[in-house]
Design a protein that fits this description.
Low-confidence stretches: none
Number of domains: 1
Order of helices and strands: HH
Radius of gyration: 17 Å
Number of strands: 0
Oligomer: single chain
Helix content: over 70%
Number of helices: 2
Distance between the termini: 53 Å
Largest sheet: none
Strand content: under 5%
Mean pLDDT: 91
Amino acid sequence: MLKYQKISQIALLITGITMVSYGAIRGEAAAVLGKAIKLCLECVGIG
């Protein structure tokens, strides 16, 4: 049981790293950051 849990944790970690890397290569980080900045400025009432 513990062996399968360890294998699934490693598989999910590798999957997560792969997805984050793919998004960074596509430039998604810049898009998300831009949206976050706009949202924060709207909450404060500046944007």
